[in-house]
Specification:
Chain A has about 475 residues and is an alpha+beta fold. Chain A is built from 18 helices and 20 strands. Chain B has about 900 residues and is of the alpha+beta class. The chains are: A alpha+beta (about 475), B alpha+beta (about 900).
Chain lengths: ~475, ~900
Amino acid sequence: MRDSLIFYVNGMRQEVRGESVFRTLSDFLRKELGLTGTKVVCAEGDCGSCTVLLGRFQQGRWNYDGVDCCIQYLFQIDGMHVITVEALSEDGVLHPIQQAMVEHFGSQCGYCTPGFVMALTALLEQQIPFNREHVELGLTGNLCRCTGYQQIFEAAFSLDQKSLPKVSERYRNKEMEKELEEVILSPAVVQASSFSQPGDEKSVYLPTTVSEAALYRAEHPQARIVSGGTDVSVQVNKGKSDFKKIISLSHLKELDFLENNDATLSFGAGVNWTELERYCKSNLPEFHKILKVFGSPQIRNAGTIGGNIANASPIADSLPFLLVTDAVLELTNSTGTRHVEIKDFFKGYKKMDLMPGEMIRSISLKLPEKNDIFRLYKVSKRKDLDISSFTAGMLLSLNQNRMTKVRLAMGGVAPVALRLKKTEDWLNGKDFSLDIMKQAGRKAVQEISPISDVRASKDYRLRLAENIFEKLYYESNPQPTAYSA
Amino acid sequence: MEVETASKTIRFKLNGQACSIASNPVTRTSDVLREELGLTGTKVGCDAGDCGACTILIDGEQRFACLTAAGQLEGCDVQTVEGLAKDGKLSPLQQAFHRYGAAQCGICTPGMLMAAQSLLNVKPSPSREEVEDALGGVLCRCTGYSKIVAAVLEASGTETQELPADADSGFGSRTRKVDGEPKLLGTEIYGADTAPDDSLWMRVVRSPHPRATFVLPSPEKIIEENPGLMRILTWQDVPGNNGFGIYPHIKDQPVLAKDQVRYRGEAVAALIGDRKSIEAVTDDDLGIEWVPQDAIESYESALEGKISPVQEIHEDNLLARGFLKKGDAESVYEQSLIKAQGSWETSYVEHAYIEPEAGYAVKRGQRLELFVSTQTPYMDRDEVAQVLGIGPDQVRIIPSAVGGGFGGKLDCSVQPLLAVAAWILEKPIRCTFTRPESLASSTKRHPAKMKASASCDKDGSLTSLSFEGDFNTGAYASWGPTVADRVPIHCSGPYFVPNILAKTRALLTNGPPSGAFRGFGVPQSAIAHEALMDSLAEQTGIDQLEFRLKNALRKGQKTGSGQLLENSVGQAECLEALQSRWQEWRKASEEFNNHSEIIKRGVGIGCCWYGCGNTSMSNPSTMRVGINSEGTITLYNGAMDIGQGANTIMIQICAEALGLPASSFQFIMGDTDLTADAGKTSASRQAFVSGRASQLAGEHLRTQIIHLAEAEEDANLRLDGRTLWVQDKNGEHSILLSDLLPRTNGDVLVGEGTFDPPTTKLDENGQGSPYATYGFGAHIAEVEVDLKLGTTRVLRLAAAHDVGKTVNPTQVEGQIQGGVAQGLGMALMEEYVQGVTENLHDYLIPTVGDMPDIEILLIEDPEPLGPFGAKGIGEHALIPTAPAILGGIRQATGVSIHRIPATPDRVLQAIQQKGMQA
């Protein structure tokens, strides 16, 4: 068993043991390698100043995506190749992306600039065109307080992705790639050696198969699973959590699949948001609308769907969709596998129907039918990169104008994201009319129990739960539609 | 820094010979060559990849040695300038350089040679363009490159041609940011990016309560238990005055609180030690005994007097008042038939600069040196001196590059704490605030509670405006008095109003200190006056833009403070520039609304004016420009560049005045030992005040040159290495700079300029001339509101601003676009709540996705006092945005939002309340 992490930074090999594996990548880059071009501003994935490229070997090829390295711990980047802003210029000559930023004054104070440059570089790596639509999406995870973003856009629009050199190409190196491709096939355990009280030692385990993971979980039921870590890392950074035993799922290929058979969609718990987003773009545009504003590209490149479910937040953006599509979770541990419907999975605030050692392996759901009315809503104070105040999913099948199947789900209105069974039953068989939908709104507020918090007041959430029915009605009739979500 | 120090063996070929060194693989190759191998032919000009003086060849390719980690040399073929000559005989290229006189001072020559050699190795007969490309990474200050290019072409046997002229970089051009490249390379040094190797770290322990008394137990035990923890500083360790603050007579904020705290986030102790140890010791470990007390957290409790006052010396919690009276607003309002009134409340707004507060301090002899991210090095110097109880000349402030300020880095943050620690421990100390710490401890925009009313006659001419505003100034004074002073002058907007009554108060509460934030209270009061304008326009049946145009201040009119406006009053032109868009956008939104049930659009308008410089106060700026015997021009620029581009425009202005190209300038920014006091980067004053000083400095230098050459006043100057050529109608005169006696810093001629904008004191009725000039502007914004969700989106915005004269259009545009982003945040989402929104996902600032298309219209009504007609833009850009957006919401929904920001819950509540009434 390997006892060290192996990864590369700007083409240079790094091998890390001991306590260091629990450092954030940003800390390692800045303090250990002196690469201070990567800035740390919020330490929680909100601002994108620490964006780096993460090269990963996925489905037989090397992909480079932007991630916030302040919430990536070193144990999460085992077997990967990190590219930082320092790697962009060659012999002091700026990369065309950097040059464009200079020429268009995309940098004022400059503190966010490395992050923006890396986010644009991530678009280049994916060969995504530098047009308004894609650049706006690609930069949602980066905050700038000086420029108002316009000049950054102009810099980006001046570029043609087809004619620019990919930064990763410059660092392509057969030996490095071969080594890293082998690394992710070999499980590792790394101990933090300085904490040496027997049985109390801090360690991280990186299994390569689900059965290895299940066995380890049976022995160490308290081990914290990290799968993307975009929330856990924030808790650790804030000093709110500290885990002795960590099991990191990044090398579990079995969790990284996505299949579509007729009306059923199945995917592994390790599928990240970007992969899901790519699939949904043409196949599930309504869910894609939510995915586009979920976190930021950096977060979507790291966070996984399994992590989103298991984090059990009542406001998790995936849940209204999973609830209205009757999603079923496949759960596994060392003794076997069972299936649980997602509507029954959440037992209370942050409480789940999980047996000792159990983990989410995959999710399968029924796709909405072509003529269904299917809408998902996310209300937040800011369009992008904001935690929702309220979410809703609504799926109606109509026969003539009669509702024959009704699925209603809401988040942010109770300790768990939930289905509104009573309102569903009331609506079933009724006509789809403005009056009926208004009445349904008034019924729905009886089924929920929102609270007031920093994101919204109880009163506002109740209003939204009621209004959303009316909005659904208007939007399902020919109307000019606004920006959505 | 915990940089790994382990040495590794690195093997490579050096000038044809095998070479093996034991070195830390992250060491700069330039250091390895010069310090370890003694090959000093490779010069270091910048250590940042900007100058190319360190250019060497690695595997035949030119590389900057200063940016190449020694570890990267493994297995490479490295060539330096020492390898060019064979057996002491110059190579053909070196001979050509020799023949052409391509080397003058010679410092760039090794880099030039290596860059040229890399080209000639692969392309023996290059074109001029290829040569220029190859040398593009190496800078020369002496030759103007023409002889170097000629030498390379000669060496290759290719024909020589004249070099193209320098790109235009003069006044009014889109000159590139002079400090742009390092920012792009990631090599810019911000406050957290450097410190002496042996620095200790500091972590500040802060109050978790808005108000409490406390006892800090003796630290001996905890220091004993933690060997890496060297010291815990408390108030007793402050050698001078344990107090700081913006005003010389109000040093009310303790460096470290003694026994009581007045806001959550106030500093009570500082842990000094190695980084690991100070981070490992938690606040709880210190065993501080806190006794929380009732806190004053509302205007009401500040005024009621039930809770003991925030500061003992201000019994009524009243820090400052402002007042302005012109005519008799109250009786005119009473008699008027057309009236509007309203009340508004705004929130604490955080600067949220992306770079947190950071720096290091080190004691050198009997002086303290402080490297810090700041907007105001001279104020920092004086502040630190009084905290240490030493003279200002014993303190040197070296500003780092500043990663955003917006007013928030005018107040001290790390400065006094680092200074005390370094002074007492006699060791370098560094500190970087965490984001939550930055949010909790730093100053904010004043929350305001405002009441205002206005009247007009039936033709739509304004007849009166009254304003009353309470500004929550938090626990300590900071810039509270400034806000109380500035708002009455501006609260009537950029309009001619014959009768005005304005009263302001700055109230102390147990909140974070409110300080300076882009506009000093004016953005808050603009929300009030612009809502009143809309209401009056509606009542008179006049279009909202036309109403504002009718009342716009014009030349020859007097302001509310009785100041006669003689020059540069472009308000009407700004509005006229927006007229056609306004009509078109309004029409488009009406058409949209005709076909939309629950999504509604509206277009709103906001106007601004803002005095450039400090209010009724001397605020001089001194700039120096020098030229040394090598022909290098240096602008000693004390005007801090915090991202807005002062470094660039000061050079553009000075260059224009001097008559030599901006591209021949270098600059030193804000070092209190090297630059003169140019005042604060605040109050939209640098372009206007320091810009004028730069112009005067350039003119002063020019006058000396003209006199030396005994030439005519209108002579043309030209710099050719060490020779300054002065051409007039009588011919060309030369000045050999190396013949002149240098000063200690090497400069042989120095120009200096000082400008203090003329202002007068305000009398008891707020009458006088508080500013030497004002900037004007107007924004229109189209918004879209979802009537069922309460969400608002700004679709497009057009901004017209009178900037006097544009120094650099690209930078002015950058200021406006950045201002709009902050104005949009203030209007729709930004709200700091102590203890609740202490990170960047609970405290929201606009992202890319929130920004509308922005169209910019620059109006130029020159200001004779400004540099070539220019005046400020920094704060003006933000002021009209929120009023325009709020007006758009009003137009779209028919409801007015009185509690800012207009978050979805507030908008929806207002819409539904109106629906219930209807």
